[in-house]
Write a structure and sequence with these properties.
This is Resolvase/invertase-type recombinase catalytic domain-containing protein. The structure is a single chain. This protein has helices at 21-33, 51-58; strands at residues 3-9, 12-18, 37-42, 48-49. It is an alpha+beta fold. A four-stranded antiparallel sheet has the order 2-1-3-4. A hairpin with a 5-residue loop joins strand 3 (37-42) and strand 4. Helix 1 packs antiparallel against helix 2. The radius of gyration is 11 Å and the shape is globular.
Length: 63
């Protein structure tokens, strides 16, 4: 699975490719913590998930 994490940092757009949902979530949270704006995770279909969707879409419930 390929996921793209995109954010705006210091007026520039940066993007990172991750192969797993957990890797994408980790990078997105890292970017947010670093003060980046407009952090999104985009899936292979082109759907973009904002910070409010991260937990619901990229964190698996423990059974």
């Amino acid at each position: 699975m390929n996921l793209i994490v995109t954010a705006q940092h210091d007026g520039r757009v940066v993007s990172y490719q991750r192969r797993s949902p957990s890797g994408a979530l980790e990078k997105a949270l890292q970017l947010q913590k670093a003060g980046s704006d407009r952090v999104f995770i985009t899936d292979i279909t082109g759907r973009a998930y904002g910070p409010g969707d991260f937990a619901a879409c990229f964190v698996r419930a423990r059974v």
